[in-house]
Amino acid sequence: MSKKPRIVALDAFTMGQDISWELIAEQGELVLYDRTDPGELPERAKGAQVLLTNKTELLAEDLDLLPDLKCICVLATGYNVVDVKAAAARGIPVCNAPGYSPPAVAQHVMAVTLELFGKACRHARAVAEGRWPAQPDFCFWDAPIVELAGKTFGVVGFGAIGQRVAALAHAFGMNVLAHAPRPKELPPYGPFAFASLNDLFEDSDVVSLHCPLTPENENMVDARLLARMKPTAFLVNTARGQLVDEAALAEALESGKLAGAALDVLSREPIRPYNPLRSAPNCLITPHVAWASVEARRRLLGITARNLRAFLEGSPQNVVNGVE
Q: Which one of the listed residues 288, 298, 306, 309 is annotated catalytic?
C-alpha cells in the first residue's frame, strides 16, 4: 500500500481509556469511535482500508458497502462478529489476536474459585454490615470455609488458558482433570489425568469451562450434565455464556443440586432483567471482565499493531479466513 491507510476503530471504548493506541496510530490515519451502531457503520467505515472491531458486527451486507476495505483486525481472539466467509469472498483477510489473555483469565478463575471455597468477600461484607460486633465470640462465619488442597479441579478445554488455569490449580494442591477434544501432551505435574466429559463433571469439585463456542457444544452444560456434578461442587464459566443452559443452572442452584457458580459470561450481555441467574443463590456474576487486565489489553493492542504491520508489509498474520 503506497500511502498510509485510513484505519477506523469502530468500538474503541471496549479497550478502555487507560491504554495507548500509539503503536497502531503510527501506521496510518487512525480514527477512534467509542461505539458504532449498525446505522452509523456505512458512514464511519467509508473510505477505510482497515477496520478494527471488538464487538461491532461486520456482516456481508456491510462489506458490500465498503469497496475500499482491505483488512479487518478483530480486537479479540474470537471472531464471530465478522462474516469471515463473506470477507474471504472479497479477498479481505480477517486477523484475530490470539494469546493475549491467558494470565488475566487464569487469575480471574482462581480469584472466583477462592471466593467460592473461602468466602472472603462474603465475610468482609458481613463485617461492613455490622454483623461482627454483634457476635458474642471473637470470630464467626456463616458458611463453610473449604480448602482447595486435595480437591479436584476439572478443566474443560485444554488450550493456552485451560493449561494455565490447571497449573494454578495444581499450585494450590488440587488434583487436576482435563477434557480435550484433540490429543494433548501430559503436563509436567500431578496428580493429573485426561477424562471424558461425563467423568470430569462427576469427579470434580470445581469445573471450569475453557472451550470455544461451536454449534455442536451450545448449551452443552445442560440439566443432564449438571445432574452428574456433586451437590458440593462449583461451576465456573469464563469462556462463552452460550455453553451453559442458564435455566438449568439456575434450577440446580435453587434446588441445592449444585453448591454455587461463578460466571463472567452470559448468553446475552449485558445481563437481561429476566435472566434467572440474577436471583440464583450463591451465583457470582461478573461483567465479562476476566480478560480485561491492563496488561492483557496492552498485549491485545500490541498483537493488533503487529497484525496491521504484517498486512501492510504484504504478509498478513493470524488470519482466520484463509486470505493471504
A: 288
